[in-house]
């Protein structure tokens, strides 16, 4: 169908719902020529995608006509509609960048001094385009025409859809689906054997429909790094640090556990202090824009607030964490949860207590060396979990691994899909506290601990079995 006359389009601009929103799509100021030039380079299909993404603030009849091709908008005509219907609190140029980002026109973003990475950071937080609409749009992108028709039949709809966007808009308009009722989609995708899409919807229902949870929906969901220190330098170290026999058990358990939760796992072993810093900087500056979460586990000897390289040189734990916080290196992790797990001692003192869970006599070692400075406050969206509280040793069985890591992976494997990470760490604290380390006729204790500046709950995504 041919595009409508400009006068019809000008009246269509009034179809934006004034009663549904209290502010307008773009500000009243004139948009720069560059943005106008970029909009003119869009395809008609881009315009339809943008209308779908903005359907929450556009009049439903207007959206319906565009998605059904009753109204065919050119990019310039869509631009005029945006200008005629401003939302005062939303910057016009920001809105255009966000729309281009979501429809993946990264080449056009570059023409207005943006890019995929910048947009990922800028639009990670809530905006005019809701999380539910983003979910539906992501499904649209992964449903070819023939599967859209199958989905329509399975949902007992007789729409005669032209596209996935039209189908989802109609389903939402008829209240057949909403952010608290996604079971029809889950059942249909299961029948269609689209298990990846079913899992995406399930993950959204669990994580995203409530502001209590960080959205963790992608596969792989994030990168999980393990720095495993087993063999330490002997020459030039007086006294040298003992090798950490049994740490391979921890490494293997962490690898298996995080892989089961859809992480891409990378292991680094026996790093010097300088190499630890170089690798952590590399991790922070990597492109995490296609991931939802980050994990770093460091297994080493340590003292208060420090871990050791294999060269017996101390590295402040806070400094490593700050590469992801105040140093500002991890731009593509802004607003996303960053989890750090430190298996090391934080001093030389031994905790004592009454045995509660007898364990068989083990060859017990500690991850201790000395003690030092204070740990400063951490920044947002960061969790740090420690094998022990400051000033005390942590224990490691040479055959069964460390108390902390083994208790952690046990609780993750048992409750990882059901509970958030802070609840799991509380259970881990309890498990660690119940254990005893029989050494030289004494049963010593250990108490793990964690600090958090997470703003939401973290719940992991289980891989398909």
Fold and architecture overview:
With 465 residues, the protein is α/β, with parallel strands linked by helices. It contains 18 helices and 15 strands. It has helices spanning 6-12, 33-40, 44-53, 60-67, 75-84, 92-102, 106-110, 116-122, 131-141, 145-154, 164-173, 183-191, 195-208, 247-260, 273-285, 317-322, 403-415, 421-434, and strands at 222-228, 263-269, 293-299, 302-303, 306-308, 314-316, 338-343, 351-352, 364-366, 382-386, 395-397, 401-402, 437-439, 442-445, 449-452. The strands form 4 sheets. A 6-stranded mixed sheet has the order 2-1-3-7-10-15, covered by helices on one side. Strand 5 (306-308) and strand 6 form a beta hairpin. The protein is elongated. Mean pLDDT is 80; it is low at 1-30, 354-362 and 370-378.
Keywords:
465 residues; alpha/beta; six-stranded mixed sheet; three-stranded antiparallel sheet; 15 strands; disordered N terminus
Q: Helix content range of the residues, please?
A: 25-40%
Mean pLDDT: 80
SS summary, helix count: 18
Overall shape: it is elongated
Major beta sheet, specifics?
Answer: 6 strands, mixed
Provide the low-confidence segments as ranges: 1-30, 354-362, 370-378
List the helices and strands and how they pair.
Layout: H1 6-12, H2 33-40, H3 44-53, H4 60-67, H5 75-84, H6 92-102, H7 106-110, H8 116-122, H9 131-141, H10 145-154, H11 164-173, H12 183-191, H13 195-208, E1 222-228, H14 247-260, E2 263-269, H15 273-285, E3 293-299, E4 302-303, E5 306-308, E6 314-316, H16 317-322, E7 338-343, E8 351-352, E9 364-366, E10 382-386, E11 395-397, E12 401-402, H17 403-415, H18 421-434, E13 437-439, E14 442-445, E15 449-452
Parallel strand pairs: 1-2, 1-3, 3-7, 7-10
Antiparallel strand pairs: 4-5, 5-6, 8-14, 9-11, 10-15, 11-12, 13-14
Helix pairs in contact: 1-5, 4-11, 9-13, 12-13, 14-17, 17-18
